[in-house]
Amino acid sequence: MGLYGGGSNIxxxxxxxxxDDTFEKFLTYQTTKDAAADKRAADERADAKAEAAAAKAxxxxxxxxxxxxxxxxxxxxRTSLQSQLSSGLxxxxxxTSQLRAQADKGETDAxxxxxxxxxxxxxxxxxxxxxxxxxxxxxxxxxxxxxxxxKSKAMERFSQGYYTSNEELRNxxxxxxxxxxxxxxxxxxxxxxTMFGQVKEQVNAPLxxxxxxxxxxxxxxxxxxxxxRRSLVTLLELLLKLKSSNRTSVTPVSICTVLx
Length: 260
Hints:
- There is one protein chain.
- This protein is an all-alpha fold.
- It has two domains: 45-175, no CATH class; 197-260, no CATH class.
- It contains nine helices and no strands.
- It has helices at 22-87, 92-105, 111-142, 148-159, 166-174, 177-195, 199-202, 207-244, 252-259.
- Helix 3 (111-142) runs parallel beside helix 5 and helix 6 packs across helix 8.
- The longest helix has 66 residues, at 22-87.
- The protein is elongated and about 175 Å long.
């Protein structure tokens, strides 16, 4: 019985409340989702890295192949340039420039090839060209072959830098006493032959005599010839005017015939 004589004891039992695991499940879901996202991002980064590495390898491979091809072509190019330089088809400066450009393509040193080309040019090609130029200059300007002493002297001047081109050698020959005498003799011979017809009589006369005669009377002769020319022009103009007005039957040709 109860404390107060009542009925049986009643024990209170709290109701069972189910556990709420919604948040826990959300956390699990979010964690799983984040992990999947992280994995996907990692995979994408790995793929991008792999692609970049492959692209880099392809570029480096192409560059390496290009370098190898350029290096392999260097001996052929060097031989070709040496041949062109020997034939005069290309200048030394152009040849060395092409060697340097080829070396840059192959990322290699062009010094050895240039040294070989320079040795060929300075010891074989250039001396041969200078010798040919010296011989041609003497023959074309002075009308004779150069002596061995003249060849040696000209080559020495080239090597010392006194002459830097064949043109400078030729200019020096034009200024030489031999050329001046030769030119004056030819000029005086033509002058006498044209104006006086006296070359045959004076062909054996000393050159100095003829030079002195010409220089002494040069101005007087020039003035006389100019006055004669002007007089003839004036006379011909007058005759043409007279003929056009029918005042005379005299023609310029008849007057010239009489004058001659």
